[in-house]
Protein: Iron complex transport system substrate-binding protein
Organism: Actinopolyspora righensis
Amino acid sequence: MGKYRKSTVRSAALLFTSALLLGGCGAEVASESSGDVPERFPVTLTNCEREHTYETPPERVVTNDIAITEIMFALGLEDRMAGYFLSDGQRRGAASSPWKKQFEQVTHLSEEMGMEQIRKADADMVFAGWNYGFGESERLTPKRLRSEGIESYVLSESCRVDGTDKRGIMPPLEALYTDIRNLGELFGVPERAEKLVSEYKSTIERAGPDSAEEERPTVFLYDSGQSEPFTSGNGGAADQIINKAGGRNVFADLDDSWVSVSWETVLRADPDVILINDYGSKSVRDKTDFLRGHPALSQLEAVRRERFIDLPYAALVEGPRNPSAVRELAEFLESVPTSNG
């Protein structure tokens, strides 16, 4: 238990420090005048494998979800924002974010994204994702926004496989780089975008171990759920974070980003490490207590050996905290023997 607590404190410190270095110095972006359209427009971007042309620079952007909002902050684009939507379960993450100051400066519109609040904010673009605010059941889609004269940009990690509801069309970290570059081009800060991508890649490369695939410890990402767990397949940022850190996601064969699985499959996998997604109404302590107290799950290798590490939600979905998450998890995994070892 002592190792777990030390890792938790070290995790927060490293994530905070690295994120400040990688994304905290972009606030000097000049605002473009709404009266004149810059010569570089129209701008055409490829988003979710479709080309879309923006005729004018967005000046009142609304975002949904903490990590999506942090992408804007990392690029220094808070002055282009009309507000953000953030659930109550993510407010704690914003309070401890490296961009806490920006979260306090930009308007928190509501817990759940909706058309009424988007209209009230006089938004000219919405940056969200499928199941990160966009969804047919909520009747809130890029198509509907276009019908009201509002542009959109879809988080690349959430792009859906053509003809399905499954998400994930590219490696998750490549999705992050794609969005950083696309938004850099759209908002006229391509140099800042390239600098971020270069720093992110360098951080990840330095963290990556040289161990062979079969020598890597297996990792189960525990997001939430007691009757059945919610975890990450190969389309989610968490899967590639685990891989780049030197681990093997036990659900890497699932072609989706975030999915529900069964405890029976977790028991069969018997992971070496359990990575806990720290967010929502259930605390990290609640989740570890549940695992320790469950008759079957308490016999998992990771539970018996107290091999728990937690990272914040914003570090495990696509966003600027991903590189720091790779580094922190890699340091934790260095001392973990594999089930083959």
In short: The chain has a mean pLDDT of 89.
